[in-house]
Amino acid sequence: MTQEQWGVLRQDLLKTIGQNNYKTWIEPIEFSEVSEGVATFHVPTNFIGNYVSQNYGDLILHQLTKSGASVQRINFKVPANLSTRPAASPAAKPAAPKAEDTRDNDIAGAPLDPRFTFDSFVVGKPNELANAAARRVAEGGPVTFNPLFLYGGVGLGKTHLMHAIAWELQARRPELNVLYLSAEQFMYRFVQALRDRKMMDFKEMFRSVDVLMVDDVQFIAGKDSTQEEFFHTFNALVDQNKQIIISADRAPGEIKDLEDRIKSRLQCGLVVDLHPTDYELRLGILQSKVDSYRAQYPELQLADGVLEFLAHRISTNVRVLEGALTRLFAFASLVGREITMELTQDCLSDVLRASERKISVEEIQRKVAEHYNIRLSDMIGPKRVRTFARPRQVAMYLCKQLTSRSLPEIGRRFGGRDHTTVMHGVKRIEELRAQDGQMAEDLELLRRALEA
Ligand SMILES: Nc1ncnc2c1ncn2[C@@H]1O[C@H](COP(=O)(O)OP(=O)(O)OP(=O)(O)O)[C@@H](O)[C@H]1O
Which residues line ligand 1 (CB under 6 A)? Predict the structure, then answer.
């Protein structure tokens, strides 16, 4: 096959998979050669190679054979001289910082997802602080807080933000040695170094980075020697004033089986939490996804109210939300129908059922009353003293967050109060949550207890 034939084939792919996918996945790959029935393509990162292979491999192979090429298999390879070439990923122009392609001769990090950039990260109240902190670090200026510790529940965008920082740093400060990897990979590298008796190399390698990013650090809890090594690496980098960015699924103090000295080290910098998404953020994410789908599915019609419905009903995590939308678009495109409320309910019945809110207003009232040590009757009753009013507002806030009840309905369940009283209560708690660490902690504890 020649480069010209590949050019024609790419155009066919563009028509089949849509401009968005094409730009993200096909544009960055280059045809190299066909040898003994194997077509080899060069890719900027292993991540892109794996993704294309899994998602478009069959399609490419099919097109190749259709165009007469004698190919039985396709292969994606990161060329050895990659570091001198910029990667062609959509928003992130530069090559992935220390991606897997450098495994043999340098520090191996994890591949970065080209979709995870600041541009594609939708900001709302629950994640605005985390986003601002991430952006500050991504500027690559003097280190002001070390480490930056990002934490939050499953699928709330920790990895997305970490990758966004790495991409941005690489674009702004290409001379920096940025290393992103998961805590699991850190452990794997450490064990390998021990086994191969290359601890000196390992130490040297990790101490030579300018920015170290470790995702899902809770993974090393309970793994004593990995923790020990992590601690030394951490200290060495902090001493050299090198930026460290860590993510975890909970706050440093709450990670069980993590040594106290590590916990306190992790708390030294800026600890920010990604709160569970609220309705507005979910809607924003859905809208931005739909915008990015437009090019891929130009013919698709989306009825009013569908996104609002999804944002309201699927509150588990962003990954589930995204998955639901992807499925909905693919399904509608397949059957060639408008995305109506009916089609949505048909297509996503399992997801909707699974995320059906099971928490009741009564449960919330009971839990909150218990937490603040007041009687249920006082929570619902008319007394307006602070001792009862604050827990009442907390309970109203949680009802708004965790149930699908409307404000008037919530008001009715709280001794027939007006919906404006509920609205005021919810707003007050939102303000307190942002200003008062104790309140934020109480809310998180209650939410977890209720969702458990
Ligand atoms: N605010 C956001 N804007 C756009 N996309 C988001 C946002 N938050 C999360 N996502 C998307 O949701 C998915 C899950 O996010 P991510 O993998 O970063 O979550 P995580 O917090 O690292 O989860 P886990 O705890 O499972 O590691 C990703 O596809 C990500 O792009």
Answer: 116, 120-122, 127, 152, 154-160, 216, 249, 285, 318-319, 322
Q: Model confidence at 94, in pLDDT bands (50, 70, 90)?
A: very low
**Are 128 and 61 contained in the same domain?**
no
Q: Which atom of ligand 1 is nearest to the CA of 154?
A: 25
Ligand 1 atom nearest the C-alpha of 123 is: 1
Same domain, 286 and 345: yes
> Ligand 1, closest atom to CA 162?
18
Looking at the domain assignment, is residue 34 inside a domain?
yes
Q: Is residue 92 part of a domain?
A: no
Pocket test for ligand 1, best of 165, 217, 318, 320 (most atoms within 8 A of CB): 318
Binding residues for ATP: 155, 157-159
User: In this predicted model, what pLDDT tens digit does every residue of 367-414 receive, in sequence order?
Assistant: 999 999 999 999 999 999 999 999 999 999 999 988 878 899 999 999
Residues 105 and 240 in one domain: yes
* Final residue of a structural domain among 274, 300, 315: 274
CA of 157 to the centre of ligand 1 (A): 3
Residue closest via CA to ligand 1's atom 14 equals: 155
Please state the residue numbers annotated as binding site: 155, 157-159
| Helix, strand and coil percent figures for the chain, each rounded to 5 | 55, 10, 35
Of 304, 337, 354, the residue that ends a domain is 354
- Ligand 1, atom 5, residue with closest C-alpha: 121
| 433 has a pLDDT exceeding 60 | yes
Q: Which atom of ligand 1 is found nearest the CA of 113?
A: 31
- At 248, which helix (H) or strand (E)? strand 243-248
ipTM of the modeled complex: 0.98
Instruction: State how far the Cα of 347 lies from the Cα of 337, in Å rounded to an integer.
Output: 12
User: Which residue segment(s) compose the domain that 313 sits in?
Assistant: 279-354
- The string of DSSP codes covering 31-88 is EEEEETTEEEEE-SSHHHHHHHHHHHHHHHHHHHHHTT---SEEEEE--TTGGGS---
CA distance 206 to 219: 18
Mean pLDDT of 79-92: 43
